[in-house]
Amino acid sequence: MAKDDTAKHTPSREDILAFITRETEAGGPRKIGVREIARAFGAAGDDRIAIKRLLAEMADEGLLEKRGKRVNRKGTLPPVALVDIIARDRDGEMVAAPVEWDEDELGPAPRIRIHAPRRARPGEPLPGVGDRALVRAEPDRDAGPDEPPYVGRVVKLLSRQRQRVLGVLHIEANGAGRIEPIDKKQAGREFAVAAADIGAGKHGDLVSIDLVGKTRFGAPRARVRETLGSVTGEKAVSLIALRAHDIPDVFRAEATTEAERAQPASLHGREDWRDLPLVTIDPPDAKDHDDAVHAAPDNAPDNDGGFVLTVAIADVAHYVTPRSALDRDALERGNSVYFPDRVVPMLPERISNDLCSLRPNEDRPALAVRMRVTSKGRKIDHSFHRVMMRSHAKLAYAQAQDAIEGRTDETTKPLLAPVLQTLYAAHEALRHARNLRAPLDLDLPERKILLKKDGSFDRVIIPPRLEAHRLIEEFMILANVAAAETLEQHRQQLIYRAHDEPSREKVTALSEFLATIGVKLAKGQALRPAHFNVILGRVKGLEHENIVNEIILRTQAQAEYTHENYGHFGLNLRRYAHFTSPIRRYADLIVHRALIRALKLGEGALPEMPVGELAEIAARISAAERRAMAAERETVDRLIAHHLADQIGARFQARISGVTRSGLFVRLAETGADGFVPAATLGREYYAYDEAAHALTSRSGVSYRLADIIEVKLIEAAPIAGALRFEVVSGGERRAPPPRASAKPKDRRPSARAKKNR
């Protein structure tokens, strides 16, 4: 980086913007923050403090986008972006747009002109319109005013034809067909297919279609392009999500062969920890067990009342070596995906459920961390070991909790005094440290769908949150922190699990809402999770508790995997990496390999790779995680819609989960099903949208606000799309309008945020 030629001084706003622009266009450092700016302008001491304060002000004013310690000009793309290829320009070059872009905060999404080779490299298909890809992008200094401001190259094609239309084929008596789209936004719409255009499709098949044309009257016409399998019945409903999101569910032959040929690890090169009474504590239906725990009093004289904690994690790196067929498939999947009726694992069952699963009384290779903590839960030191272990018991969360509360069984009775009581005593120490750390403490119960034997919907339960859950959670968090610290100490590159602080825009919106209920959020200070916890504590047990929890959740940024460390805001940790689940998360496998390399623990180490490659991997697995979350959520929606399809006219208690100009999103209390109430059905009055209060309010003062409890009636169900439409039967409150600085009426046109919320 070249230093600024001007005299050394504290830079102005214009100087900083010019510097960031110049460095970005010149292909300068991937990270620009206080240190880089201070170095460029020769600033030190008080000048550095002034630069830090100025950057915060510029972020508040919307001139810069702040991400951890890194700043960018507002609305700029990261060096590696996940994009959809949306069109070709007049010269035949492809044009892409970023997948994740908040138009509310950043304005219209920028376009990227894609340079594509004339011939594909072996095994690397040429991208086309509709595909999703990872792109390395940079500003195009030669771009004209109407041309894409970025130019990029595809570094990895992730999926083909993202813009294809998927639907379920229904064949009529005359041989013609109709297509019911799976997209919730197209619920109620259909496409007509002539008998000659059905091809090999059968009634109930999931198909992809090409649109042929529109008719003046009747449904648009389509042609079946590809048949993707039968989705007849609820049991196959997860297949829709797999195909819609291009989630691979069949391993390549080479990967399967590698898995089947794998042999159990030997003790050679490992420490023998088989006598240590490690135990696994998991959900009762878990099929793979990748973490085991142990605690013992620390007998060291400098740690009176402290503990030695051990977390042993399945040594997946022993079996899945870098750039092998198993590794390529695991990276493509990114993580395991969990549906109510099936699991799509990241690794073949031979690896995940057999060789790497920490089954009781069986020798298993592991990567273990031993941590010393004080009686108050503060970690003194830690060390990593490559070991051979033997789990002494497989316990369920409720089983462990019952034992501690005096209800032992034949498995837990002999473990109570030597193992479980010490684990819980250590957990008490960790809980003390957690309270001092004050991570974000949202009350968000998790629902779980139970199925009948035939795979159809049975009921929704909310599993109790036990102290055993918190015990394992705190042990895993501490192990993850230890992994990140060790790799940083050895200057070993890694992938972090990072969670940025909320954006200024979202915090401002939260502050505006809190003002409507008489709660203040102090501005102009460094934001910490504790500030949100204070607010949550103030409204606990009051009428605003649910809405405040919901809005604070929406204020948070989304966690991601990244090769740059900007901390974990929600956990209130300076450094954090995923280490504890390499069977089901590729990020954890990268961290295991990095530890093996840094500590010289044998084979399976992370190979030398440029930072750019690690950034690409982080972007890919972050995208895979979000893909899995969307697929899991949509599958639950479809299962419940199937269940409710024959209950048209039934009434349900619901909570308002979202408010837009066009209507209310609601969530049923009994099942957690999501649905929509169009604003036009609320009554004869006109309802104005109050964005700050998250409410629709009529002229007479009747208001429907986020988190309100209402009664609704089911009007329409579209099981294939997972869409439900309701009408309000009762609910809504008369509320005095909050004070406003201006009585100027709001624009009734849908905002970008309202469109996004649909």
Write up this protein.
By secondary structure, the chain is α+β, with helices and mostly antiparallel strands. The chain is built from 17 helices and 34 strands. The protein has a 5-stranded mixed barrel with strand order 3-4-5-7-6. It has a 5-stranded mixed β-barrel with strand order 8-9-10-12-11. It has a 5-stranded mixed β-sheet with strand order 13-20-19-16-15. The protein is globular. The N terminus and C terminus are likely disordered.
Overall radius of gyration = 28 Å
* Helix-and-strand structural type: alpha+beta
Beta strand count:
34
User: What composes the largest sheet?
Assistant: 5 strands, mixed, barrel
Q: Report the total helices.
A: 17
Helix content: 25-40%
Taking the alpha carbons of the first and last residues, their distance comes to 45 Å
**Unreliable residue runs:** 1-7, 738-758
Choose one word for the global shape: globular
Q: Please state how the strands of the largest beta sheet are arranged side by side.
A: 3-4-5-7-6
The percent range for strand residues is 25-35%
Protein name: Ribonuclease R
Catalytic activity: Exonucleolytic cleavage in the 3'- to 5'-direction to yield nucleoside 5'-phosphates
EC number: 3.1.13.1
Enzyme class: hydrolase
